Structures are given as C-alpha cells and as structure tokens.
Amino acid sequence: MSAKPAVLRTARAVGAWLAGRPKPVVLVPTMGALHEGHASLVRRARKEAGPAGTVCVSIFVNPTQFGPGEDFDRYPRTFAADVALCGASGADAIFAPDTSGMYLGNETTVVEELRLSAPLCGRARPGHFRGVCTVVAKLFNVIRPDVAVFGEKDWQQLAIIRRMVRDLRFPVRIVACPTAREPDGLARSSRNTYLTPEERKLAPRIHQAMKAAVAAGGSPRRIAAAALERIATIPGARVDYVQAVDSETLEEAVDRSRPARLAVAIVLGKTRLIDNIAIPPVRP
C-alpha cells in the first residue's frame, strides 16, 4: 500500500475521522523519526487490521517522558519522511497533535505503574515511565483502538504497558513485535543517528556480547556476568545495567524455570543504547 494517510491534528479530528471507520482499529504509538523498525510495526498493524480494518499511527514527541538534561529538544523530527513511510507500510491515518493538544499545562492527574517501572531504566530515568503510561493512556482514550502494536526493543516499556492495560481494564489487545535489527545486529533506534561513525562501528558488539553470553549457557546470573565481561571490552562503553530479569515481573531471574530476558543499557559516547534478548527456560 502507498496511499497517503490522513493527517489528524486534534482529538476532535480523530473522532470525526474514525466515525464509521471499519474495525478493528489498530494503533501504533510512536515519537516519529521513523525507520524500518517502525515500518515493521505498521505492517504488523495492517496484518492485524486486515484489508478492511483501520490502522492509525500516532506521532508525538512526548515531553513528559524526558528528564532534565535529556534529548527532548534535539530528538529527531522528520515528519514528511514519517508520513511517506506510514503510507508505504499500510497506515490509514496519522494522529500528530502538538503539545497543547495532549496536555493542558496544569494537569494534576497522571498514570503510573509502581513496580515494573522501578528497576532497569526506571532507576536511571525517574518519571520516564510515568510519562509513557500517561501519554499511552491518553492515546487509548482518544483513538479507542482494539489493538495496539509495540516493539520488543524496550522490553520494560512493553511489560509496563501490558500491566497498565491489565490493571486499568483497557479493552485493548497488546501485540508485541520482535526487535528490528541492522544487518550487523544493532537494534534499530531513532537515537542511532547520534552515534559517531566510530561509535557506530563499535555498537554492534553489544548485541554480539549478549548473544555469546546466552549461547554459553548457565544460570541467568552467569549469563549476565558473561555479557558484562564482554561489553566491558568495548572502548568507551559505560554500563548502566546488564541484568537477567523475569520476562513478566522484571525481577532478577535466579534460575531458568521461567522465560527471562537479558536486558542492557549502555552509554556509548553521548548515546544511551538499550537492547534485550530472550533467555529461554530450561525445563527439568
């Protein structure tokens, strides 16, 4: 498909456009600066919607999920290219509000998950997942999707959204898509554009270290330690965390009885990169 999607700027415009549109309505929430990883999410949304359903992509750089000193002002904004990618991937509409269309400026209500948001990125980025949950809840209320599609690259975010949907009884089915990767294994990310050429050459070693550690086997702690040892050899890499966690609870995985994830956050130069891969369970 390559038709140009409708561009909707306000919640009222979304409501008017969706009136009478066929179901299911499938939402792909994004912050723009779209790449092939996002395109894969939109294509999955199109599959979920079927040829007759409705696919909506939201593009909104959400200020409440950025902390002081983070990259809100310089976050890539490539709207014209984003519209073209969405159209080529099967989207019917783009919801692209401005900040005043999502926040009144004097809100006293937020949505916050209290347990899964505490470890991993939650330690380094306090308030980040409160911003994520609040804006996703707003998007669900505006668009009223039947299905929402998220990538697995930010596994913690995915787990938190699943918990929010469960706890608040949102009538939305969450679909997860595998992490999209460059040919050399680096997880696709809008922030990869921040990497210098030399850092870009080094970045794939993160995923290589993770794969090697999981392939070597052992307990989750041993896998995490092996990954950390390998990542520590990457010139200039600063480790935020390297941890094996339960796939659902995000608590530290202590054995191989349940599905787990090896999750990492590494700062390379000035760019913070996250990634995760599965640690499959070992049945007795």
Report low-confidence residues grouped into runs of 5 or more.
none
CATH-defined superfamily of the largest domain: HUPs
Distance between the termini: 48 Å
CATH topology of the largest domain: Rossmann fold
CATH class of the largest domain: Alpha Beta
What structural class do you assign from the helix and strand content?
alpha/beta
- Rg of Cα set: 19 Å
What is the strand content?
A: 15-25%
Order of helices and strands: EHEHEHEHHHEHEHHHEEE
List its salient traits.
284 residues; alpha/beta; Rossmann fold; Pantoate--beta-alanine Ligase, Chain: A,domain 2; six-stranded parallel β-sheet; three-stranded antiparallel β-sheet; 9 strands; 36% helix
Could you give a short description of this structure?
The protein is an alpha/beta fold and 284 residues long. The protein is built from ten helices and nine strands. β5, α7 (155-168) and β6 form a beta-alpha-beta unit.
